[in-house]
Design goal:
The complex is a heterodimer of chains A (181) and B (182). With 181 residues, chain A is mostly helical. In chain A, 94% of the residues lie in helices and 0% in strands. Chain B has 8 helices and 4 strands, in the order ααααααβαβββα. With 182 residues, chain B is of the alpha+beta class. Chain B starts with a helix and ends with a helix. In chain B, strand 3 and strand 4 form a beta hairpin. Classes of the chains: A mainly alpha (181), B alpha+beta (182).
Chain lengths: 181, 182
């Protein structure tokens, strides 16, 4: 509000002075006064915004410095860390190689152990299969022998059976029946 | 009612009449001759039980059969009765049951004998021996089966007595196979 009043007053005074015309001689003084009034007015109007601007600017610059400082510290730490890592890289590489070697050794042992177990199992299965096949063959052979024996016996009986022998067998069976009936 | 019990009822009734008229043996022998004639899958029974054919025709056939066979009146009446009641299909069962009961009444035993070769003398020996053992009159039917090799196969009612060498060889081979005999 003060700013508006000052501007109106400034223009009115300027016009009044100009209309009088009589004081042309003192135009330089009036211009000077006019300028001083302008400067004073501007001082009052712009004092606070300029102050605020510089204050904020000051804060931002400070913050920028602090951020930069923090970034620098972080970067220094990282540089230190990487430098340390580079210094330990040979140890790390050697450690990794050892680990890989150990793992490889373990894997190799596991594979060998698995293979040995599988071989053992295969051996046992084969043994069982052989025994089974052997038993089957033995059984089959036994049956063939029995069948052949029965066949030979039947043929021999057919050839050699006499009536007397037949009568004797029948008589013997009837006697056996007599005991059971 | 099943076939067996139905046959038994008719058989008992027929036997009762036969005993009154003292002709059990006669009826038994006549029924024995009729057995194969009344086979339930045979042509005669199929014809007599065919519903598509008129009963008059069937009755004529029955009369003709009865006249030809000159059967005892009890049997003729029974056949006619079973025909009228549409039970002629069970006539074989009646005969079986009658024979079974009649055999007990007549103290006789039906025996089937199979030998490896024909030998009448041996059949007679077996018959006499079985009559001695059972103390019953044996009605024996004989047959020949060369595969028996030796010995005898005797069937009494539902029981089979196998004294053949074939059976003995089979038993021996089973025992050797199972390890009972080495």
């Amino acid at each position: 509000m003060n700013h508006v009043v000052f501007i109106v007053f400034y223009f009115i005074s300027n016009n009044v002075i100009a209309s009088e015309g009589a004081a042309k001689a003192n135009a330089v003084y009036f211009s000077l006064i006019n300028f001083i009034l302008l400067v004073v007015g501007l001082y009052f109007i712009l004092k606070k915004p300029v102050k605020d601007f510089f204050k904020e600017r000051n804060f931002l610059v400070k913050k920028g410095f602090e951020d930069a400082k923090q970034l620098k510290e972080t970067a220094d730490l990282q540089i230190e860390e990487y430098s340390s890592k580079i210094r330990n890289v040979e140890t790390e590489v050697s450690k990794i190689i050892d680990e890989i070697r150990n793992e490889g050794e373990l894997e190799r042992n596991k594979i060998v152990s698995d293979a040995q177990k599988m071989a053992e199992r295969l051996k046992m299965d084969s043994q069982k299969l052989i025994e089974q096949e052997f038993r089957k063959a033995k059984e089959k052979l036994k049956q063939e022998v029995i069948q052949l024996s029965v066949q030979l016996a039947s043929e021999k009986i057919k050839q050699d059976m006499s009536e007397t022998q037949q009568s004797s067998i029948v008589q013997s069976y009837l006697n056996k029946m007599e005991q059971t009936l | 009612m099943n076939e067996g019990s139905l046959g038994r009822r008719y058989a008992k009734a027929l036997l009762s009449i036969a005993r009154q008229k003292d002709c059990v043996a006669l009826l038994s022998s006549q029924l024995e001759g009729l057995y194969s004639f009344f086979d339930d899958k045979g042509t005669l029974v199929q014809f007599l039980t065919n519903p598509a054919l008129p009963n008059k025709e069937k009755a004529k056939i029955i009369e003709a059969i009865l006249a030809k066979w000159n059967l005892h009146t009890s049997i003729s009446h029974l056949i006619k009765l079973m025909f009228e009641r549409k039970r002629l299909v069970y006539f074989q069962s009646v005969i079986r049951e009658f024979q079974s009961i009649a055999d007990e009444v007549l103290n006789q035993l039906r025996v089937g004998v199979v030998l490896p070769f024909s030998n009448n003398q041996q059949v007679d020996t077996i018959k006499n021996k079985l009559e001695n053992i059972t103390k019953k009159k044996v009605i024996l039917t004989s047959g020949v089966d060369a595969s028996l090799l030796g010995g005898v196969l005797i069937k009494i009612k539902d029981k089979l007595y196998d004294g053949s060498l074939k059976a003995q060889l089979a038993l021996l081979s089973t025992n050797v196979e199972s390890g009972t005999v080495q």
